[in-house]
Amino acid sequence: MIEQIQSETRQTVDGMQEVTPKTDRALTKVHAVAGMLQSISGEAAESRSRAGEVAHATHEQAIAANDIARNVEQVSQMAEETTAIMHVNADSAAELDAMASDLRAQLAYFRVT
């Protein structure tokens, strides 16, 4: 009976000695994987931060583009108003020219030769 217990104890010790290096290698691999996961997590956080910066910059560009579009619209309206004023001025100049012609004709009537 003692021999049997000693035999089983040796088998258990032998089994544990076999398993110990395997568990050490597994633990080393687990630590390596944990390091990789931590690195991936850090890189993901950095990517998320950069994506946030890009989103913010895109939002700012959209605001600037809207401002530019609004300013272009204002310039277009001002150009239309200027064109309308120029037409009014041209019409007024034509009327003044006609009035000047009439005045010349009336002055010619009173001219003594």
Automatic annotation (TrEMBL):
Coarse class of the primary localization is membrane
Membrane topology, from the record: Multi-pass membrane protein
Keywords from the UniProt entry: Membrane, Transmembrane, Transmembrane helix
Q: Which ranges are annotated Polar residues under compositional bias?
A: 1-14
- Where in or outside the cell? Membrane
Positions of region (Disordered): 1-22
Coiled coil spans? none
UniProt keyword annotation of Transmembrane helix present: yes
Q: Which residues form the signal peptide?
A: none
Q: What is this protein called?
A: Methyl-accepting transducer domain-containing protein
State the organism of origin. Answer: Candidatus Accumulibacter contiguus
